[in-house]
Amino acid sequence: MDFPADTDTRTVSVWNDKVEVTFRSLGRGPDLIYLHPAAGLGHSPFLAELSKHFRIHAPHFPGTDPERPREIHKIGSLWDLVLIYEEAIRAMDLAGAPVMGESFGGMLSLELAANFPDLFSRLALLAPVGIWREDIPIANWIAAPPEAMPAMLFADPAGPAAKAIFTPPDDPDVAADQTAALVWSIGVTGKFLWPLPEKGLESRLHRVTAPVHLIWGNEDRLIPITYADLFAGALKDAKITRLPDAGHALSFESGPAVIEAALPFLAPAGAARGVA
Amino acid sequence: MKINYFQLIPYRRFASDFEAHHGAAVDTPYALVDPQEVRSAYRDALGQYMHAARRGFDGLAVTEHSQSAYDMLPNPSLICSALAHATDTEGLATAIHPLGRSLGKAREPLRVAEEMAMIDCISGGRLVAGFPVGLAYDASMNNGVPPAEVRARFDENLELVLRAWTDPEPFAFNGRFSQHGCVNIWPRPLQSQPPVWITGIGNPNTMKFVLSRGFGFNYFSWFGTKATGPRIFNRFYDIAAEMGVETNPYQMGFMQMIAVAETDAEAERLYAPHAEYFARKALGAIPMNQLALPGGIDIRGLEFIFRDPKDFGAYAQMKTATYRDLVDSGALIAGSPETVAQQLRETLSEFRIGNLHAMLHFGSMPRDLAEANIDLFADRVMPKLRDLWEGHDHHWWPEALGGAARPETNTPMKEAV
């Protein structure tokens, strides 16, 4: 799904002008940073609805902007990645805005907030990765066969949301490019998630001072909902909303419920920054 | 023409429905094995390698795969060092060729450099070093290297290994993936620099790299040479032409599964169960999501592969392949000595291949049949291939075994980087 024509695309040069980060900005309302999941950044009914309430600023993870696929090779470590995002958010003059992070984007949001506690005013996180327990293994979506993905990501693997994602376009060239972009996006984000999506975040979570709202699907088969309690237990100020009949791909399968849960948290009266 | 003996070391006693329930790598349950059959697999494999060395094969080619039921060979150096000593003891002038010491997988590249240097010393300068980037499942799933870092790790590790072999002075190495305050390995190889071979699956970037550095290029035909051969080999030569690099058949290595019997019908009778075992319980039982992981192939390569997957040849059919399917696809060249020699000669000639890695043991094959295959091949096929490429110098072969000095294009790593 293409971004609407009035979406602003802005590329900021960071990391001593060595890395370019592309932001898509859309909608009207207070600023909201959106950090996308491992599958990449594309427009969706969820973002369309969210953009009715916020001015969304969504950076492409380096390497997932179709124009700049090799930016990923310039980033050697998670530490560099966090600093690059921090520079990019400040370059966009977005410091102090709330953030919504989805899955991998949720982990990234928490890493940023742990390193720079004033960077976000609030964090709404959709089933973030970042903690891993041997007795509650998280499925390896990077190595999963394609046929396993619907059941891994959706509460209803045969439902319309799953079909909309996994039905290839009729044009084989478009289908090839879309599949390549999806695989590449999972690969470049996987650079910081392999072999297990746990890079010490739990030990840093106590540094997060902004309020955190964890939104989780009761039927999440990728990251079991038990992890919501583990995150909340390690954070200073966290609450959990558990969504019934929802899987891991929350923004695709349960968009309206996510927005209903997140709105009062992200834009409480008088708390928003940069109200248009 | 150089002809090496090649085999994997598979577990040979899986039940007939193994592939319906299990994959061949990463998570194959070890509870399925009889430990004595594992012991037999090593004893027979080492015996077969030595039998081939005695029968006049030019080299012994060994792979590397961890957590693999189809090739129980987590470290080729162990097999190669045993073969280096045994061939030395018997006075056999046979190259020792670890085809696959994956440097995209290696977390201790200096250990690779040391082990290979030891093999070269033990063998008296007969090492031919092979450094593939590494299979996705092995480098990433087994060894935890992020797929997006495998290639970069390979590049860095190769630089370190070659410098550790050749730099006469101790040096500090400050890499992204390893740091060493003082690199000064003991021993250095006996050869000033052992020949270096890279195994590829068709990635043009790997071919460009091989050609720019003057290394040898190995290609494995498991997915059927008839479909993949014209694509892969011609791509290599087209890229060489684009780069203005003069090619030499001895820069090309080719692994081919081969079965020889007195007649074509006899070959089918003797080898069909073992070839089908290999296709179904090894190649066909490695799922695609273990052979290629997101991040391992860059987006331009992905766009190419999703439009045109033919580099994978008959891979998708392997799980149910019959003997006839394997022969028809070229994955297996089988038949009487005349049939096999004719087909091999055509393939080697057409694609200008100077090094054949003859895979004469595969699947569930017992030792007596493997040695019969080796004998028939050595007696009645090998002589019909020997004259190929006479007059060309082999720059990718140990000088102790008649190899020519490396050409100037084979620039030492430090100068080429």
From TrEMBL, chain A:
Major enzyme class: hydrolase
Gene3D superfamilies, per database record: alpha/beta hydrolase
Pfam families associated with the record: Abhydrolase_6 (PF12697)
Recorded superkingdom: Bacteria
Keyword Hydrolase: yes
Gene Ontology terms for molecular function: hydrolase activity
Keywords: Hydrolase
Positions of the AB hydrolase-1 domain: 40-259
UniProt keyword annotation of Hydrolase present: yes
EC number: 3.7.1.14
PANTHER family: ALPHA/BETA-HYDROLASES SUPERFAMILY PROTEIN (PTHR46438)
Identification of the protein by name: 2-hydroxy-6-oxononadienedioate/2-hydroxy-6-oxononatrienedioate hydrolase
Species in which this protein is naturally found: Roseivivax jejudonensis
TrEMBL record, chain B:
Alphabetized UniProt keyword annotations: Monooxygenase, Oxidoreductase
CC per GO annotation: cytosol
This protein's record includes keyword Transmembrane helix: no
Transmembrane segments: none
GO molecular function annotations of the record: monooxygenase activity; oxidoreductase activity, acting on paired donors, with incorporation or reduction of molecular oxygen
Signal peptide annotation: none
Superkingdom, natural source: Bacteria
Pfam families: Bac_luciferase
Luciferase-like domain residues: 40-346
Name listed for the protein in its UniProt record: Luciferase-like monooxygenase
Organism: Roseivivax jejudonensis
